[in-house]
From TrEMBL:
Gene3D superfamilies assigned: Alpha-D-Glucose-1,6-Bisphosphate, subunit A, domain 3, Alpha-D-phosphohexomutase, C-terminal domain
Name of protein: Phosphoglucomutase 5
Keywords: Cytoplasm, Magnesium, Metal-binding, Phosphoprotein
Entry's localization field: Cytoplasm
Organism per entry: Sus scrofa (Pig)
Length: 567
């Protein structure tokens, strides 16, 4: 802290009409919009900061991190300059600006920060032609609830100026404290650059039996693993936790250098994009494989020979084996949560354990109230996200360590564990079809017409014959959620068709990028008989898909011949 105080400037600006957070306080747009549109990023950052009550904001601590994508360093500098000008007292930032989303949640909760700003577009591509995003997490460490997102949006529509200290410069590479004297401020503004892994690693040590996992990875007959960080934020975490701490060989971890464009790849851990890992696992050399998305909250599990564990199965299997984790043996299990589109495999486990299941809209923010009120111990979504009440975010590495703990305790392979689960609870065949990049107006009319069709009373009892299959409609609705904690009602969260054999079809509109829209189609069918557990999901579900395509006319109305992505 040298020289004269750094000036605080007030810069005139004009609002943008498109800065409504998509959910959880997050704004995701093409990178060029953030980089090229005048004041686009400062406007949103000011709206976020102004959403915090002034008395809570003055002198408070906040956490800042990014997944390392293109434009993150520039954006981090702007966030720091604006936080200082807006009265924030201290910022905790990961070295080189890097912090996974779970680590941000962890640090917020550990130091009791007022919240955190995460610069990420999750699993979307990076680079100048990719996407960029800003996400706001609140004081419990979780994504902003809708009431906060609405407040941010209202502020963004009327913003006239923002405060910034453009001369403030920080060294993101240097660990430790940096202090700055600002004009008209009584106390120095402080920035602390921290190791991105250490605080989060300390939390994991309290949850898992690291000795058991280390024995699995290093002892006689060690499990050979392959973990793909997909050039996102998780590289340092994989190396420090799995390799340095738990003894996995260094060559177990691939694509561990965070890159601004994720190596030109789509950092989405599924069978469509994590092909490098899939091919390695198909060779049979490795017994366990995992991949993470750009910001580290999503994950995929593969067994030997590329055996795929669906996210819904993974959630149910974790739930059925929580006794393998010291944290849950100590804390107990109070309840489970899943998003409505996620398969009902979890419900069967919950019934056997005599614990409640909370069915919520898609979006992790809906789980926070359940966990804060002590109702929920484990939550998950079909979009490759699982977590527990140790944080208020989904947590990819946590889920991987749970799986390794289960393997260590049960002394079985991934495939054996999954097949045992199916034998006990039955198999839920499940697929998601994404129709991406659609015109928002087109998707609006498709969903409007579908809702009118399926919610009409005459639709109940209707029968659909496809080949030898006959499906009878038992229930339909436009899903709405009443929060059991505060009574908040969230409507129009997807259209459900439930058949008499418990098969389900779900249609849901998603528009997280704000520019184009996505219709997601989900199909689920239950098979109790073990002799029917070896079929291809798409083959089993093809009659349901045929019904969905017939009633939605999605191909005819969009000009598409099929979905963009199938998971």
């Amino acid at each position: 802290m040298e020289g004269s105080p750094i000036p605080v400037l007030t810069v005139p600006t004009a609002p943008y009409e498109d800065q409504r957070p998509a959910g959880g306080g997050g704004l995701r747009r093409p990178t060029g919009l953030f980089e090229g549109q005048r004041n686009y990023l400062p406007n949103f950052i000011q709206s976020v900061l102004s959403s915090i009550d002034l008395r809570d904001r003055q002198g408070c601590t906040m956490v800042v991190g990014s997944d390392g994508r293109y434009f993150s360093r520039t954006a981090t500098e702007i966030v720091v300059q604006m936080a200082a000008a807006n009265g924030i007292g201290r910022l905790i930032i990961g070295q080189n600006g890097i912090l996974s989303t779970p680590a941000v949640s962890c640090i917020i909760r550990k130091i009791k920060a007022a919240g955190g700003i995460i610069l990420t577009a999750s699993h979307c591509p990076g680079g100048p032609g990719g996407e960029f995003g800003v996400k706001f997490n609140v004081a419990n460490g979780g994504p902003a609830p809708d009431v906060v997102s609405d407040k941010i949006y209202q502020i963004s529509k009327t913003i006239e100026e923002y405060a910034i200290c453009p001369d403030l410069r920080i060294d993101l590479s240097r660990l430790g404290r940096q202090e700055f004297d600002l004009e008209n401020k009584f106390k120095p503004f402080r920035v602390e650059i921290v190791d991105p892994v250490d605080i989060y690693l300390n939390l994991l040590r309290t949850i898992f039996d690291f000795n058991a996992i280390k024995s699995l990875l290093t002892g006689p007959g060690q499990l050979k693993i392959r973990v793909d960080a997909m050039h996102g934020v998780m590289g340092p975490y994989v190396r420090k936790v799995l390799c340095d701490e738990l003894g996995a060989p260094a060559n177990s971890a691939i694509n561990c250098v965070p890159l601004e464009d994720f190596g030109g790849q789509h950092p989405d851990p599924n069978l469509t994009y994590a092909t490098t890992l899939l091919e390695a696992m198909k060779g049979g050399e490795y017994g366990f494989g995992a991949a993470f998305d750009a910001d580290g909250d999503r994950y995929m599990i593969l067994g030997q020979n590329g055996f795929f564990v669906s996210p819904s199965d993974s959630l149910a299997i974790i739930a059925a084996n929580l006794s393998c984790i010291p944290y849950f043996r100590q804390m107990g299990v109070r309840g489970f949560g899943r998003s409505m589109p996620t398969s009902t495999a979890l419900d069967r486990v919950a019934k056997s354990m005599k614990v409640p299941v909370y069915e919520t809209p898609a979006g992790w923010r809906f789980f926070s109230n359940l966990m804060d009120s002590g109702r929920c111990s484990l939550c998950g979504e079909e979009s490759f996200g699982t977590g527990s009440d140790h944080l208020r975010e989904k947590d990819g590495l946590w889920a991987v360590l749970v799986w390794l703990s289960i393997i260590a305790a049960r002394k079985q392979s991934v495939e054996e564990i999954v097949r045992d689960h199916w034998a006990k609870f039955g198999r839920h065949y499940y697929c998601r079809f994404d129709y991406e990049g659609l015109e928002p107006k087109t998707t609006y009319y498709i969903m409007r017409d579908l809702e009118a069709l399926v919610t009409d009373k005459s639709f109940i009892g209707q029968q659909f014959a496809v080949g030898s299959h006959v499906y009878s409609v038992a229930k339909t609705d436009s899903f709405e959620y009443v929060d059991p904690v505060d009574g908040t009602v969230t409507k129009k969260q997807g259209l459900r068709i439930i058949f008499s054999d418990a098969s389900r079809l779900i249609f849901r509109l998603s528009s997280s990028s704000g520019v184009r829209a996505t219709i997601r189609l989900y199909a689920e069918s239950y098979e109790r008989d073990p002799s029917g557990h070896d079929q291809e999901p798409q083959a089993v579900l093809s009659p349901l898909i045929a019904i969905a395509l017939k009633i939605s006319q999605i191909h005819e109305r969009t000009g598409r011949r099929g979905p963009t992505v199938i998971t």
